[in-house]
Each structure stands twice: as structure tokens, then as C-alpha cells.
Design goal:
- By secondary structure, this protein is mostly beta strands.
- The protein contains no helices and 6 strands.
- The chain has a two-stranded antiparallel ribbon with strand order 1-4. It has a two-stranded antiparallel sheet with strand order 2-3.
- The two termini are 15 Å apart.
Length: 82
């Protein structure tokens, strides 16, 4: 998005970075996970981010009702803005 820093990010234990990932599809049903590759000195690893061992699930809502569970909310909302 506009105004965001470019990759790569430099982080530390005292200066972490938080990423907000928004996954949207229009007319498909998708299972997915995120892979984050990081390095520290000579060490380099890829961390798989998923839903407790299962892939995340994103479903399109073309011609169907839309629902969302926004960050920080405690319940589902009907017809969220796109």
C-alpha cells in the first residue's frame, strides 16, 4: 500500500514488525498459507504461517452474502465494505 516501507524489513526483539494480511477472492474457494523467509547473520529459514497446521480458507462471495470478522472485533459482521 502507499506509504509503506519496502522490503526487506529489519526487526529486533525490541522493535518487532506486525503485518496485516488481507486475503480476498471474488469467485473462487481457496486454501492457502503464508511462507515468511527470514535471515539473521548466516542463519536463514522459512516459517510457514497457517491455521494451527491447516491452510487458511478464503471463499469468494460473488452473488452471495458477505461476512467478515474484522481485526479487533468480537463478532462477525454482515456485508462488510470492500
Amino acid at each position: 500500500m502507499a506509504g509503506q516501507r519496502k522490503f526487506p524489513y529489519k526487526v529486533s526483539e525490541k522493535d518487532p514488525e506486525v503485518f496485516l494480511v488481507k486475503a480476498r477472492v471474488q469467485a473462487h474457494d481457496v486454501n492457502w498459507y503464508l511462507e515468511l523467509t527470514w535471515s539473521s547473520g548466516a542463519k536463514r529459514e522459512t516459517l510457514r504461517i497457517d491455521d494451527q497446521g491447516r491452510p487458511f480458507h478464503t471463499s469468494g462471495n460473488l452473488a452471495r452474502p458477505a461476512y467478515a470478522y474484522p481485526l479487533g472485533w468480537t463478532e462477525w459482521i454482515d456485508n462488510p465494505p470492500q
